[in-house]
Design goal:
By secondary structure, the chain is mainly beta. The protein is built from no helices and 15 strands.
Length: 146
């Protein structure tokens, strides 16, 4: 209709500043499934255990790989990343010795008694025949006494 202004709602995965004529994508490490965002701070940090690899995402790219754990804002599913970002720290780390990390791990899980984890484990390994482990979070098993 002549004389009317069509208002456009900013699409999901983007934010539209007050004085901006075009949508800007949510940055890497964030996403948004909502429309109408006005500033980058409204983009959601990628949840722990997930990663957001590109700009303008409507949902996280996927889960972090087994053997790693991802904190909020991860941009990769594996590889070691520890950097300061405006909203805090972005970290993707190898699962530490004495722990295991399943796919999508938010935090490392302690290896239970009877198992061991040398680091970068996706699951705990059982002690082999002739060895034991009575403690959790161990990186090796002890030989059985003779």
């Amino acid at each position: 209709q002549p004389g009317t202004i069509a208002s456009s709602i900013c699409p999901a995965g983007y934010f539209c500043g007050v004085n901006s004529s075009s949508p800007e994508p949510c940055p890497v490490g964030t996403y948004s499934n909502r429309t109408g965002l006005r500033e980058t701070s409204e983009c959601v940090l990628c949840a722990p255990g997930r990663y957001c690899a590109t700009v303008g995402l409507r949902e996280p790219t996927g889960e972090c790989l087994a053997g790693y754990f991802c904190e909020a804002g991860a941009i990769e599913s594996f590889g070691e990343v520890d950097e300061a970002i405006p909203s805090g720290r972005r970290r993707v780390l190898l699962c530490p010795a004495g722990h295991y990390c399943i796919e999508g791990a938010e935090v490392p899980m302690p290896c239970p008694p009877g198992t061991y984890c040398t680091g970068n484990n996706s699951l705990p390994w059982p002690c082999t025949a002739g060895s034991y482990n009575l403690e959790s979070m161990q990186s090796s098993c002890e030989p059985c006494p003779a």
